[in-house]
């Protein structure tokens, strides 16, 4: 059984502004995020925070045929990780997984919930999944527990969401008053849409049985978390009783040999450590169990040399990490891939992959580009903060900091 201070904490954020651009997200959420991170920072240990954001993300009349706007969803995640990185830079908080004392490993979880959603008094939450990786508030309350602290926003929408959540989570954990912490909310603004124009959230995105992503994933930080989350949102999750193949999330992780010339290469994590951290992070988005993490937070991983696998949601989702030794990885060796997620830095790689696949007579992949994290869009002190911000979203800077921290090291 985990000790209470080893448990994750929850920051429950109410509905985002509409439109959810970076400046409006910053105004709405930064005070709450700052308060939670400040409370969790401790000099003698690391902490973990789940930021749960309620938002009417999914559309569709039936549970098993939900759709979402990938562009809007990933933009919301990017905006939140941008704010988290800026706040951590200003408070000198480490952001990477296993960051050690003074760090807060933060994960953004999107929760499908609308203001009009009502639960009757006799409602009992249970895990009910749909064909996406996004879950509703009742499922979140059923699967995410117990907590160290629960932070809730002290405004009308925040209190309504908090009270609904507590009803749904009743019986999951004995919570003392000291664990329930109100935090200040920011200013949420909603703009009216022009006549005849639909909100962009109504522009729905196809989901795919097999999604691929590649990267180094050294010292897993908010930039990595955004990429991994964005790609997971594209998964088309089959029904448990469908009897077919699981949705497959293939993650190509750069092999150790290709990283020997990186700056501070001696501080690069092993491929095994990087693959394990990727799966542990994704388990926070994909693992659902009525027992929560009472028995621990580590997923079951089938580990072979250069090939790690983990199943989630009763076998309907397979996360498959493979070692790659070139720029293409499994995208040109595995024919059954549908979508590829890239960052702005790897945009050209998406075209190169499709050119190679076309040469082989294979179908080309749908390519999705994830937004970048940008300190200037959410920082009140762009020059000073941008310098510190880089240490929160750059593996090379994290390695440099670790090298400098080693006694007797000259940089």
TrEMBL record:
Which SUPFAM superfamilies does this one have? Nucleotidylyl transferase
The UniProt entry, under InterPro entries, shows: Rossmann-like_a/b/a_fold
Please provide the Gene Ontology terms (biological process) for this protein: coenzyme A biosynthetic process
According to the record, the signal peptide region is none
GO terms (molecular function) for this protein are: dephospho-CoA kinase activity
The name this protein carries in UniProt is: Cytidyltransferase-like domain-containing protein
